[in-house]
Design brief:
14% strand, single chain, lyase activity, alpha+beta, 11 helices
Length: 424
């Protein structure tokens, strides 16, 4: 009898132990894909609210909520870009019925969709970007030849100039080879059902993060608190990351073309060092947004994204595909389907390079957002800078096979917001 009792006890304990192991294994399977992608091998889970690295004794000034009149006069222009972006798509209707079955996969958290092919982002060299510019190792300079000189036609036609930038984007990824997307199902802008069963990115080549301009760009993305109205604290190391990024992209064809173009127009200095300082100031200098001075920058808004805290929370900006990939990998982004104007009459596939989507970022919804997929950081920065200095609020241009409106909002001599809208 004692032997029988002992045997039953061993079976019960053994099963319980195995159940515990299975539960732990299941938990690891849910979180490991995000940890692998980010290279985060910490034992403790990082809470979603931990937006940025904190330096010792660093204080973040949330600031007070501005009055209604103050918001309408000083910050009301920032509301306009998001409204116009939604309205641009509201004017177009679907020529197909929504297929709106609820996604009942059982996950409750943002970023609940598992990636199909977990990949590691190589971040080993990112710490080195915090060094002084004189201690950095940069890529080779692109040879300056006649192909980088703007033609007379390009100097008089912004669309031709933007298309030349597209042709000069030698670092642009190859669809189907360097990345594949799972676009899911289409939806209307105000439809809240999740029409995507999987993550947007099906695959992305690991070689992407070995490209110097790509990796330096990604190293900048965690330097900001995306809550609008929170005063930014930029450390010395982060400023050196900014300088290193500008130096790296300044060796590429799109930025050299931009300099030639703006200097011929009398907008930028012929001196390349002065031009690089102008780019740094334009994209990284802080200004007030959401009621607090020093709370935003063009780079943060356009590429990283921000979350409005006034009234109903809303994601603004956030138009960069690399930021989307990394945040989706960390489980902070939940892709919810694509938005396609009716008159295009086509469905985006796994190799598309211009995509209009809807998603949630840490539980906050972005009803409509458009992004150029696979383009290099230097191309995007050159394109938006060119439209800011030479273009208007609406800039209808051709980028390879895509007809695009580069929407550009100014705040004095600063970039308020700039993003692409797919034309029908």
């Amino acid at each position: 009898m004692d032997g029988l009792i002992k045997g039953l006890t061993d079976v019960i304990i053994g099963d319980a132990g195995r159940d515990g192991e299975n539960e732990a294994r299941d938990e690891r399977s849910r979180s490991s894909w995000a940890q692998v992608v980010t290279g985060d091998q910490d034992d403790g889970a990082r809470p979603p609210s931990q937006w940025r690295k904190q330096e010792p004794n660093q204080q973040v000034d949330v600031g007070s909520r501005p009055s209604r009149r103050h918001r309408e006069t000083e910050y009301g222009r920032y509301e306009k870009d998001e409204r116009d972006e939604r309205q641009a798509y509201n004017q177009n209707e679907w020529n197909r019925k929504e297929q709106g079955e609820e996604n009942n996969d059982g996950w409750e958290t943002v970023g609940r969709k598992p990636r199909r092919r977990p990949q590691k982002v190589h971040m080993d060299n990112w710490q080195g970007y915090k060094k002084a510019p004189s201690e950095q190792e940069y890529g080779d300079e692109v040879e300056t030849d006649t192909s980088i000189e703007p033609s007379e036609e390009e100097l008089s036609d912004l669309s031709q100039a933007c298309n030349r930038l597209w042709q000069l984007d030698f670092n642009r990824l190859v669809p189907g080879k360097d990345y594949q997307l799972d676009c899911g199902e289409g939806k209307r802008v105000h439809q809240k059902e999740d029409m995507a069963e999987e993550s947007l990115f099906y695959s992305l080549s690991e070689d992407v993060f070995r490209k110097p301009t790509f990796s330096r760009f990604c190293a900048l993305l965690d330097n900001y608190n995306p809550n609008a109205g929170c005063k930014e604290v930029i450390t010395t190391e982060e400023k050196q990351e900014q300088s290193a990024f500008i130096e790296e992209i300044s060796r590429t064809a799109p930025i050299k073309y931009l300099h030639k173009y703006l200097s011929l127009k009398g907008i930028a200095s012929d001196n390349y060092q002065d031009f690089k300082r102008m780019l740094t100031k334009l994209w990284f200098d802080l200004y007030g947004r959401g009621g607090t001075s020093g709370s935003s920058s063009a780079f943060e808004h356009v590429f990283v994204g921000e979350i409005k805290q006034r009234g109903e929370e809303e994601v603004t900006g956030f138009h960069n595909w690399l930021q989307f990939y990394l945040e989706e990998a960390k489980g902070r982004v939940d892709y919810q389907g694509y938005i396609l104007p009716r008159r295009r009459g086509e469905t985006p596939d796994s190799e598309t390079q211009l995509l209009t989507i809807q998603f949630e970022w840490n539980g906050v919804r972005k009803a409509v957002s458009s992004t150029l997929v696979g383009v290099s950081p230097e191309f995007e920065l050159a394109l938006y800078t060119l439209c800011f200095f030479v273009g208007a609020e609406d800039n209808y241009v051709q980028l390879g096979p895509y007809s695009v409106n580069i929407k550009c909002y100014r705040f004095g001599d600063k970039i308020g917001s700039v993003f692409p809208i797919a034309e029908c």
